[in-house]
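look at this one:
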Amino acid sequence: MKLKVCGMKYVDNIRQVAELKPDYLGFIFYERSKRNFEGIIPEIPKGIKKTGVFVNEYLEILVSLAEEYKLEAIQLHGDESVAYIQEIKKHLPKVEIIKVFGIKDTFDFSILEAYESVVDYFLFDTKGKERGGNGVVFDWTVLKNYPSTKPFFLSGGIGLQEVPDVLAFLRRQESQYCVALDINSKFETEPGLKSIKKLKKFKNEI
């Protein structure tokens, strides 16, 4: 099971989290987010994929930031169309594309079909007032109806308290295409600042 730590913001904290060797480190490029990233990403170990999180961003800005920060994955948290993703792939052919869909109590999985051929992963997050970092878990039993074989990330309010539920989920049939856990707000002392102690504990328990 891969691990993505999202919402990184501070240089020293980025270095500390990188020492734990998660598979993905997420940087949010969205001005309305409390975790909006500006500044320098320090040198991090190879094997950790720098992931840029965008919400309905202009294509030119997204491509420019991806090139500037040498991003290896793009996470799309808005209402991005298939055509928009195809344009990203033309400019950034080697970058992984993760498309986010928010779930509350139900979800129309037919929406995913159009995206199957243009994304590398889906990410299922909790539908809330924020575009992410709501700290709330959605009902994972909804994923029993997942019709695809496309691998996906599980996100939304996952913290230390959710470890037993995560482990139980990973033993069930609906988790067979779940390849990564995406964690964020439940590990923070303030927006963008992650607790190394909590992250270590989570990594050990999962």
Observations:
- The chain has one domain: 2-205.
- The CA atoms of residues 6 and 26 lie 4 Å apart.
- The helical segments are 11-19, 59-68, 82-91, 163-170, 196-205.
